[in-house]
Design goal:
This protein has about 130 residues and is of the alpha+beta class. It is about 30% helix and about 35% strand. Strands 2-5-4-3-1-6 form a 6-stranded mixed β-sheet, with helices on both faces. The chain is globular. It starts with a strand and ends with a helix. The relative contact order is 0.24. The mean pLDDT is about 95.
């Protein structure tokens, strides 16, 4: 199993929207590195859900339910999407400030490659986020 983080601006698509929808097609990614990460996602992989721009916090986690396919928002075959479903909301969101201050998390891609909307997460980082949030 692999672990990932996806970012969404809550005013565009929030955790609450995700819960209401019960699953979503993660599409619209137009960065090659992030696209390549989408292509690596496998059914069952765990995905942290991060509110970017406002909030700046991990609010829950999800799982991949469909591996990559042609992004339905474009005819360009270079872009892909995956389907994910929510698993659980964190009792306490884990802020970017907390992540930066935590020695177990200070190497996270979220800090080092902050502009990416999809990125890998190490299992130890995923587990630490869950401990902090629950």
């Amino acid at each position: 199993m692999n672990y990932w983080l996806v970012k969404s601006e809550p005013f565009k698509y929030s955790w609450a929207d995700f819960i209401k929808d019960k699953w979503t097609c993660w599409n619209g990614v137009r960065n090659y590195a992030a696209r390549n990460f989408l292509k690596q996602m496998q059914k069952g992989d765990r995905v942290l859900f991060y509110h970017s721009n406002e909030g700046l916090e991990i609010v829950g986690f999800a799982r991949v339910i469909r591996e990559y396919y042609q992004d339905p928002t474009t005819d360009d075959p270079n872009w892909v999407a995956v389907d994910i479903e929510p698993v659980a909301k964190l009792k306490t969101p884990v802020s970017l400030k907390q992540i930066k201050a935590d020695k177990e998390l200070d190497k996270m891609a979220l800090i080092r490659r902050s502009r990416l909307s999809v990125m890998p997460v190490a299992k130890i980082e995923f587990d630490r986020i869950l401990r902090l949030g629950n």
